[in-house]
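note to self — DONT lose this again. spent like an hour looking for the file last time. sequence + predicted structure for the chain T wanted, 410 res
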Amino acid sequence: MEDALAQARRLFEVDTPSLRQIVKEFQAEMAGGLRGEKSSLKMLPTYVGRPRGTEKGTFFVLDMGGTNCRVLSVRLDGKRGAKIEAYLRHKIPTALRRGMREALFDFLVQCIGNFISENQFHASSVAFTFSYPVEQKSISSGVLIRWTKGFSVPGVEGEDVAALLREALRRNGLAHLHLQALVNDTVATLLAASYQDPNFDMAVILGTGTNACYPESPHRLKWPGDKVLGDEVIINLEWGNFNCLPVNAYDCLLDESTPHRGEQRMEKMVSGLYTGELVRLVLLDVDPISQKPYGLTTRYLADLTLRPKPGTEKVREVATLVLTRSARIVAAAIVAVITWRDPTLKEKHRVAVDGALFTGYPGYRQTVETTIRELLSGQKDLIELHPIREASGIGAAVACAISESQGKSV
């Protein structure tokens, strides 16, 4: 057991030189993606820039995450104030994650119908937060590149998910609702944060999955400039697919059991969906506590860290190894994006972060912040991380308001 633990310590260590190499390779992938070259970072333009803070109105938001679907009513006051007036949460049934596409989208629309029947809020504009890799064609349409987070519903990849939702609205008697905006949850996080504070210039999701976005100058894009709203466009990196990372035997073992082998390397090393399974795979060699695949969740490991139980010392030690590596990789990726925007760090930068891994796992945030300072050679507070809650709903409403003001609805 001790030999296996010692080996795990070596396998999951990511030292400072390795992190600096990750920063360098991450930026090379960013550059390639922006030029339209082959890259593990998609660098997807989103057809929307940061808001002015004057956007106003009441909007419905459909927020589809990795495990839950939420419907919200969000009011923007036009003075950088936002309020969630009501929301309804539904767990997405496991069967729908690999079932027929019509069943999935009908379920989403039925969630909207349930929300409307239970509340007295009136709105005709809908924003759709869709937390999967999408190549957007406009602010209100986009094609699914691939499923992630355990979804593999056939007939959706390569299709416009906004059009599929509109079809489901018509099928279910809700054709009077107009889908005005399609956004990734990461983009929604940046929109929500910058609506309330214009100094935010990056957003990160650290939950079931992981991703990031930032505002980019149009001249760096291989993309028609007349389609950019304003003088910047938010880029969805889809950084979960970043593949220039040193993998170990446990990473390879986990990858072999996933629907999309060889893809989403960073997500499989970092996100909450996979870190618990990595811990379990290591423990099979150390102290076989769980034989069931994905039987150890990251939430359980967080609870165990906060409230240790007798006989779980090895579980907690392995969890620390896996989650520390996760946090250090994330820190390197954040530094890569910020120093891409500001190579000499002339300004301070605020990063909005959403997700239970960042806000709920003991010590995770501190490890990310400490590693950022390590990579910046001790320069303090040049990159500030700020937890942002309920961002996906508020940010989608902001996108909806921007779409209405630009007359971009489809």
